[in-house]
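User: I'm new to structure prediction. If I give you an amino acid sequence, what do you actually give back? Let's try with this one:
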Amino acid sequence: MAFGKHIVPGAIALLVIAALPLLPVPPFWITLANNIGLAALVAIGLVLLTGVGGMTSFGQAAFCGFGAYTSAVLTTAYGFSPWLSLPIALVVGAVVAVPLGLMTVRLSGHYLPLGTIAWGLAINYLFGRIEMLGRYDGISGIPPLSIGGQQLMSSDSIYYVIWGFVIATAIGAQNLLDSRVGRGIRALRGGAQAAEAFGVNIKRAKLIVFVFAAVVAALSGWLFAHMQRAVNPSPFGLDMGITYMLMAVVGGSGHVWGAIFGAGVVLILKEILERTLPHLLDTTANFEMIVFGFLLVAILQVSRDGLWPLLARYLPGRPPRDVSADGAGLERRAMPEPGSTLLKVDRVRKVFGGLVAVNDVSFEVKAGQIVGLIGPNGAGKSTTFNLITGILGLSGGSVTYAGEALTGMNPRLIAQRGIARTFQHAKILPTMSVLENVALGAHLRGDAGVLRSFLRLERKEEAALLAEAAYQLDRVGLGAHKHRPAGDLALGQIRILEIARALCLDPAFLLLDEPAAGLRHGEKQELANLLKKLRSEGVSVLLVEHDMGFIMGLVDHLVVLDFGTLIAEGKPADVRKHPAVIAAYLGSAA
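Assistant: Good question. You get back a string of structure tokens that encode the predicted 3D arrangement of the chain. For your 590 residues, that looks like this:
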């Protein structure tokens, strides 16, 4: 996702939008542009919810209804001014979204879109059954918006209000995605486990995008009510919810400006078909939706990521921002006393059904040590890592860190204690830059929230987080690649990227799962030198590795597992001679 390119498209969009009412165009064009703007607001919310957050929703039209009906009731029954009803309409959208979101974000797979269809249908049904809302006849006589005593009665008079909100929302959404909070949101799609291991509250991030999408949909509904000056349940049904989703997908579900573009493509295409097909086919039968469906499928065959990425190739983008790599903008964690017991694994056990993956394993890691955790494939090493870091729950035993029990803590709380990790199977976000992937590791070292990020008021903190990420990339030798998409890196470089991301947490304890896999000999030597330097700085390391030549000359202590059971531990020179270790690696005949 090209999050650094929003200034140029924004300037182009502003020029086009500002000029349209001044041109000698038919009034219908202005009306159509207004409808595109209203739909674009909903589609922008869906970009964050679905394209970025990975949560498919077909119920957004219902939130438009809450915004529209709230303002309609307040202005017609209670005498509120339309502008005073705006914050109330947005609050109503948010208040309704919170309980719906808490239920919806727990769903996954096909249950997620089915759930949104269910509550979307239910809400639309309620709109038509509540007496105060006028049942299926709705509410009419809604007052128009006014500015400086001038009522905005016509399409061209309300045009700039609608598009002012659209552009402001698009820029704010881009600001949000281009922030610490935004990195957590973007990690929801494909990298949630890694994000949680570095302190991202996954449930909260999902709820944030759900409520954001609901609020901008309510804003669209509020504008719709005062543009049409009448509301009824029809525009807030499932068919419009599906249409909004199509707009986001056709434009480019991962691109904010694509939402506006997609809304324009869908509504203009529908209008053209409705006007031309009856004459071409010489029939009044409704063939428009059939042709419309085929055209949308054809568009998605040409570009499955939507049309905006095709257009964005021809738009100039600003160069990558200059990021300082001094690494001095954030506070550093105090390291534990060298030689003290840092991690204590006591009779840890993990059972999957009838399989005992980890069988009453006990060992310790002292502060300032590099400890190797080795064993044949399937010995339970990565499972032990997952038990320590809270990704898996214990079936028995306990894990304590600096005297504090970690048992029952989730990965986010464990990360707050200064425990960082890499993964056996690298977990990166391939479409994000190398720099942003690494900056995800510094999530807990910032505190800017949604509002500050939306208004771009957290730039000082963001600069410090990115500077830390750049510093760690330079430290591991990937500084020259910081602006490349992470998915372009080779496997060995991705392993190193994961280490840089873990270092961004400023850990006291580092768990590395096969970090040397895919590295060449020289790169392994550089990695060994880095780990030794970290040890000298007070960072403790627990290391899983299969390269015995690499690990024997590096670690202070070895722990050996076989079939989930601890079979030996001690100094590397002693462990390598242990009969059980030789049998585990070479077979009992040896």
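You can read the tokens as a compact description of the fold. Here is one thing that stands out. The radius of gyration is 28 Å.
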